[in-house]
Amino acid sequence: MGNENLDFSPGDPTAETQKGPSWGNPRWPLVGGESEDEFTQALDPTAMSIAVKEAAKTAGKALDPAAVEEAAGDSIRAMLLVRLYRVRGHLAANLDPLGLSGREVPEDLTLEWHGFAGQEDKQVYVGGVFGFEWVKVGDLFELLRRTYCGHVGLEYMHITDTEERRFLQDKFESPEDTIQFTSEGKKAILASVIRGEEYENFLGKKYVGTKRFGLDGGESMIPALEAVIKNGSQTGVREIIYGMAHRGRLNVLANVMAKPYKVIFHEFSGGSANPEDVGGSGDVKYHLGTSTDREFDGVTVHMSLVPNPSHLEAVDPVVLGKTRAQQAIRDDLSKHQQVLPVLIHGDAAFAGQGVVWECLGLSGVRGYDTGGCIHFIINNQIGFTTSPKFARNSPYPSDVAKGVQAPILHVNGDDPEAVTFACKLAVEYRQKFGRDIVIDMWCYRRFGHNEGDEPKFTQPLMYDAIKTHPKVSEVYESRLVQEGQIESGYRDELIADFTSLLEDEFQASKSYKPNEADWFAGRWSGLHKPADAEGARRNIETAVSGKLFDSLGRTLTTVPDDVTIHKTLGRVLKAKKEMFDSADGFDWATAEALAFGSLVTEGYGVRLSGQDSGRGTFSQRHAVWVDQTNEEKYIPLSTLPHGKFEVYDSTLSEYGVLGYEYGFALADPKTLVLWEAQFGDFGNGAQIMIDQFIAAGEAKWLRANGLVMLLPHGYEGQGPEHSSARLERFLQLCANDNIQVCNITTPANYFHVLRRQMLRPFRKPLIIMTPKSLLRHPMAKSSAEEFQGDHHFMRIKSDTKEIADDKVKRLVLCSGKVAYDLIEKRDEVGIDDISIVRIEQIYPFPGEPLTGRIKRMKNLEEIVWCQEEPQNNGAWTFVDRLIEDAAFAAGKNLRPIYAGREPAASPATGLAKRHQAQQEGLVSLALDLSNTGKTAKVTLSRPNNGKKA
């Protein structure tokens, strides 16, 4: 593996940390252009004339008024030249290893444009810029070119914070040692590059034609990432969490993460990454993650690479959420110094994928801040087959990062020293300012999108250039030989030694067998995979004691003397207090608060986020009380001891925030993590997170997760987008006991399912179709007794009306709000032979208790499934056969009858009268009422079971 004692910089590391980095400018502070005020002053003719006159006097020069005026004009033009190089010098930087980008020097970066044509020897006053009081125009120009137009181009003048600009300017404008490494450091960088190159070369020879999405052409990233670890460890970093896509992933796993080569070779040969008895579907090798410890200078840094799907940038928010959780676990949320997120991007994806901006938008936001992320772009200058000029209309893929004022370091990937310097600077900036920073490494993709692809179909000229372009190590070796750092042939020795190591590892891979799954360790210790889907969910004691129940009631209804609440909230709290006094009438929001409060009191964390989660989309929650006199916030549940309660109104994002919360839950199984959609189908915007992570993450990567999704759902005439949470989509994803899907009808049952999520010894994602009208429905109430004693979560709920089992002829099964519509209509009409049973947990389907219920109904003739959703939506197509199986197991040869809306392209009508007619029609059909539903778009669908419609 790599040298854990890499010396990338001169001097003692401890001393360097104390006195500043080796490339720092000893002539700080600089003068001129450091802030808007100072730059404005530098361009003021009167002020400049005074400054020139004083400077000339100090230097022993005598200037007459005309000379002073001329010198002041020269100084102003010189300062404008400096300013433009600071702002736009990156546009003329030497960044493209292939030399194909056609980057011409902008006109305003020439001496001619500034009126200095042919005046290179003219002395101008610059007031301390680059440490000079007076300097020749030609020397200043050459210094600006060397500083801002070399192999590193810096974009930083868009940053409004003066201190940050001064910091970056200081690190960059040190003329004699901006990028400097010791002889041993240079050799270590070369060795890292060679490991990256020869690893890819070895894979290409041993596994011909196999996809590996190699790093070929971007190997400078390997020593640069090692610099992140080394320099991070010196500035307080103890954990690094990486996220990246395919390109270069296997190289990072091996040469940065220290995953044994033999293990990767085993996987290349078709072997499993985990023991065979663990189960799961597995995933391709370039999606897998790992974790390891590496030591630099006596400091151990824990590193993890988060597994990800093929979906570009989807892992980004997961990394950020996991980082936040680890910072909380390490008590590092105030400084963000110990846990560092590093995201490695492709150039086309960084510019094209919206989730990148959603993640950038989270930086610095309360509840989501991670103290800055290092973004490393592997800029291949191509996206699959698309050239940059056809993929975006901006000069760089990194331009989107300017929206959060992140500094951007563009760097030539053929100069590994420059790339390593950029990473060192990025670490120091992030640790000092807690802000995002971007490294845009220009390189190339030596082969096609994958190793079996033919890139010359679409980019023939680029690949003609690549074919003759030397490897990074060859370019760097030549430079080191010229510098006298190494002898010719040194590179060949390193290649031979490393290739020999790989060959030994390759032979060892043939007998390698994984003996342990990387699953339930660390904070997950004590948790495990459930033995079976049915039995593992029984006998979970979720009720609370009367003492705790009453104590929580006081917390939820007591307003501190120094808090002035809204008058309407006062009425809400008064009603809530009456619930506790009467021990009855508990609504949905109160039950939820009791669940949260009880878990916090028992030592668990609770983290709830969404776009309106503090108040609640429907003004139902009021987890946060805002003082009406000063807008200060009071959060009753945060005053409870032992655990921690957090509630955040998120950015207006679904994809990014849901991924963030999934990542948080991935790291911390001892916190109940909930994401709430403003309306249920807004989760559509996060469908990739649902499909690839929440539903499939455990099967693919052996990563359990207890995230809860709260999705408001229910047909109340509010139109297509505010009715359906797309229940059918979640049910279609259900298999292998992967997730839980619930549509709950009582506050107490909601209370128990939330507590069950944390109190059992395993974690599964929980999808809840939360109500809208049921939040205040007079029938959707619970008594105090239902939260205590031996009560627990009920997967099916009995009828509210006692009907003798032998009297039931028709059983109507349903879930959610429609149950109360059915109950109200049936009781209004006076029917006494129809039982209405609610399926509270749709998956895993409660087949066993449902079978027992049907078995007791000796005279049952019909089973109906009633739903509000159209026939092609909702739960019908999922529960149809499951209900039939339960009936068959109960000795009933019955198939369920469908009663509900007809198939529809749109989830719901937006017309109130039509909605009402449909709702009345489907209720009437389910209850078999005559002369109803004939004008409404509803269906009574009977299978061929010997009965007629």
TrEMBL record:
The record's GO molecular-function terms, alphabetically, read: oxoglutarate dehydrogenase (succinyl-transferring) activity; thiamine pyrophosphate binding
For activity, the cofactor(s) needed are:
thiamine diphosphate
Q: Which residues form the Transketolase-like pyrimidine-binding domain?
A: 586-777
Q: What is its EC number?
A: 1.2.4.2
Which GO annotations describe the biological process of this protein?
A: glycolytic process; tricarboxylic acid cycle
Q: What domain of life does the native source organism fall in? A: Bacteria
What's a Pfam family this protein contains? Answer: OxoGdeHyase_C
Instruction: Give UniProt keywords alphabetically.
Output: Glycolysis, Oxidoreductase, Thiamine pyrophosphate
Disordered: region residues: 1-36
Q: What is the enzyme's class at the highest EC level? A: oxidoreductase
What's in the GO CC field?
cytosol; oxoglutarate dehydrogenase complex
Q: Which SUPFAM superfamilies match?
A: Thiamin diphosphate-binding fold (THDP-binding) (SSF52518)
Briefly state the protein's biological role. E1 component of the 2-oxoglutarate dehydrogenase (OGDH) complex which catalyzes the decarboxylation of 2-oxoglutarate, the first step in the conversion of 2-oxoglutarate to succinyl-CoA and CO(2).
Quaternary organization: Homodimer. Part of the 2-oxoglutarate dehydrogenase (OGDH) complex composed of E1 (2-oxoglutarate dehydrogenase), E2 (dihydrolipoamide succinyltransferase) and E3 (dihydrolipoamide dehydrogenase); the complex contains multiple copies of the three enzymatic components (E1, E2 and E3).
Name of the protein in question: 2-oxoglutarate dehydrogenase E1 component
According to its UniProt entry, this protein's organism is: Pontixanthobacter gangjinensis
